[in-house]
Amino acid sequence: MNKTELIDKIAAGAGLTKVDAKKALEATVAAIKDALVAGDKVQLVGFGTFSVKKQDARTGINPSNKQKIEIPAKKVAKFKAGAELAEAVK
After folding, report:
1. What is the DSSP secondary-structure string of the chain?
2. What confidence score (pLDDT) does residue 45 get?
3. Which of 88, 89, 82 lies closest to 45 in space, CA to CA?
């Protein structure tokens, strides 16, 4: 499912116009992104939890020449499915 199809489903499910559904989806995504950038966790009960995980710096190997390289520390977005979502997908 792509963004357009998701907007169509939201519009049909919530009785909104496609323009309003698109605004709602974009506002939701922006709110989640802003919270993660601020270092907060976003929990949607039954759906899942969005959080930021810190990955430490580490040594890796360049596969083309087998030389060791340093991979810098970074933050990555993480999603953990909630119980209801996990059960529905089974």
Report:
1. --HHHHHHHHHHHHT--HHHHHHHHHHHHHHHHHHHHTT--EEETTTEEEEEEEE--EEEE-TTT--EEEEPPEEEEEEEE-HHHHHHH-
2. 95
3. 82
For residue 19, which of 41, 38, 39, 4 has the smallest C-alpha distance? 4
- State whether residue 10 is helix, strand or coil: helix
pLDDT of residue 77: 96
> Counting Cβ atoms within 10 Å, is residue 32 exposed (0-12), middle (13-18) or buried (19+)?
middle
Look at strands 68-71 and 48-55 and give their pairing.
unpaired
Residue appearing with tokens 């953990």: 80
- The one-letter amino acid at 42: V
- Phi/psi at 48 (nearest 5 deg)? 160, -175
* pLDDT, tens only, 47-85: 999 999 999 999 999 999 999 999 999 999 999 999 999
